[in-house]
Amino acid sequence: MKNKKNHLALALAGAMFMMTPAAYAADVSLQDAINRALAENTGLKVTQKGEDSAKYKLEKAKIQNGVAPAVTGELNAEKKDSGATDASGKLAATVSIPIYSGGKNQATIKQAKIGVQSADLQTERERENLKLNVIKAYYNALEAKKTVGVRQETVDKYKEHYNNVNQLYSAGAKARIDVIRSSVELSNAQQNLIKAENNYEVDLATLRNYMNMDRTEPLNLTSDFSYDVFGIDMNDCIDYAYKNRKDLLVDQYKLEQQEQAIKAAKAGYLPSLKVSLGLDQTEKYKPSSSSSHGASAGVGLSWNIFDGGLTRAEVKSAKTDYDIARLNLLKDKEDIDLSVRQAYYSMREAEKRFNSTKDAVNQAEQDYYIAREKYRAGEGLMLDIIDAQEALSTARLNQISAQYDYARYKATVENAMGIGLNASETAAAGDLENDVDATLSQSSIAERAGDTAEALRAAEQKQAERDGETK
């Protein structure tokens, strides 16, 4: 358990929880969101626990396959028919030292060491994936917020238009059908606004979940889209991924573990040799007192000449697992190639859309203004205004979508390449609280959800009652 957070974590906490007087919302930049998630996310804590598990497995392997000391004690008391009592005690210490195991002990320990390295890489990859998820959630929320703005503006324009049509209808300049049509379009626009507002709240909830913060905390997202040119060729991205993807390195470690498993299995064909040493002390208490001690030493050689084909089967099984590991490594290389290409193509497509929407919004605004003024002058049709407003909304939404699609896909390309964390992110990840008791005691979700074991007992009781009623 970490008792102290470094200065980065303190600065992050201040940024997250300092409320602005106007909005009472925490100002959160994209970097703040990433750092907080890396320092607080529960899923990441679960993955990081795998590092501890791997270390203990290595510790266990060293004990089981190394020098094995043992201390035993005995205390005996026996009452005879004559009424006399015999009482004695014995204390013995032994140590067994493996001299030769056919390579099995060394291979088993090597497997466990590789497991520790693999667990570290798995945590690193999980951090990179969490970073990507936070980036996507952050940009999703920004896009949703801007979509709400577009939908709200559309509603406002339809309200204004509805009022104008009503005035013209009252003056006898427009037909009743125009009033009805404008009312319907206003209602449709309001429906789209309601959906957009809900999407925004859902996206904020997702972001809060990744950051593991108060689920009702108001947020003010201070970062926004900025167009950064991605100048790396796709083939270079793929080559970089082959060398830097942590999960691919994990696959290589798994392959090396299977190589050690084959060595351990083949050790069954070979003899094993160990030396044992022992000391013992025996004390007799009744009916008379006496003491004796002894020492022992021995060399044990064992060789299973015939085991009914067990070793052969174990070797074949280990070789099969090795082949599976080789194929998994190849498959993941293929998957990485595909994931980089998909993200890269999608990023370039979004980039083209972004560049093509720059003039579309201005043109749509001019078209809407012309259609509205012509209608007011009695020269245009209601359909012209509806079409122009729809085109304007679509142009603005297309521009927003292209911007954030580019930002998300650019982050996805970098993740697919295996680009690691920056300095501040690495520091934040180092502040992850890995003590389970502390995590549970600090969790508002755990407090609100209550005792799950109690809920389980209640569910079992209800099921038992239902089962009793059916009998």
Automatic annotation (TrEMBL):
<comment type="similarity">
    <text>Belongs to the outer membrane factor (OMF) (TC 1.B.17) family.</text>
</comment>
<keyword id="KW-0732">Signal</keyword>
<keyword id="KW-0998">Cell outer membrane</keyword>
<keyword id="KW-0813">Transport</keyword>
<keyword id="KW-0472">Membrane</keyword>
<keyword id="KW-1134">Transmembrane beta strand</keyword>
<dbReference type="InterPro" id="IPR051906">
    <property type="entry name" value="TolC-like"/>
</dbReference>
<dbReference type="InterPro" id="IPR003423">
    <property type="entry name" value="OMP_efflux"/>
</dbReference>
<dbReference type="Pfam" id="PF02321">
    <property type="entry name" value="OEP"/>
</dbReference>
<dbReference type="GO" id="GO:1990281">
    <property type="term" value="C:efflux pump complex"/>
</dbReference>
<protein>
    <submittedName>
        <fullName>TolC family protein</fullName>
    </submittedName>
</protein>
<keyword id="KW-0812">Transmembrane</keyword>
<feature type="region of interest" description="Disordered">
    <location>
        <begin position="447"/>
        <end position="471"/>
    </location>
</feature>
<feature type="signal peptide">
    <location>
        <begin position="1"/>
        <end position="25"/>
    </location>
</feature>
<dbReference type="GO" id="GO:0015562">
    <property type="term" value="F:efflux transmembrane transporter activity"/>
</dbReference>
<dbReference type="GO" id="GO:0009279">
    <property type="term" value="C:cell outer membrane"/>
</dbReference>
<feature type="compositionally biased region" description="Basic and acidic residues">
    <location>
        <begin position="457"/>
        <end position="471"/>
    </location>
</feature>
<dbReference type="GO" id="GO:0015288">
    <property type="term" value="F:porin activity"/>
</dbReference>
